[in-house]
Amino acid sequence: xxxxxxxxxxxxxxxxxxxxxxxxxxxxxxxxxxxxxxxxxxxxxxxxxxxxxxxxxxxxxxxxxxxxxxxxxxxxxxxxxxxxxxxxxxxxxxxxxxxxxxxxxxxx
Length: 108
Prior knowledge:
The protein has 108 residues and is of the alpha+beta class. The protein is built from four helices and four strands; from the N terminus they run βαβααββα. Strands 1-2-4-3 form a four-stranded mixed beta sheet. It is globular, with a radius of gyration of 15 Å. The two termini are 19 Å apart.
C-alpha cells in the first residue's frame, strides 16, 4: 500500500501500537500512514471519549516504528499527522549520495 488513512477512527482502535506494527509489512517502503482524529478536549470528545491527543497519537505511532513526516493544523476540532516507516529513514540515510533505490530487510 502507498497510503493508509484513518479518519476519525483512531480513538476506537484497541492496541494501536501492535496494529500499526503489523501494518508496516503491507506498506511500500515509501508508504505513509495519515491519521486525522478528534482532539480529546471539548464537550463531545471529552464526554464520550471520542478523541485522542496529538501527542498520544504521535507517541503510539512512533512506538510502533514510524516517524512523524508532517503535522497539519487545518481543522478546528481535529489534528492531522502523517507518518513514515523509520526503517526507511535509516536505510535512506545509509545510501550513497544520489542513489535512487534500496531494499530493507527487517527481522521480526
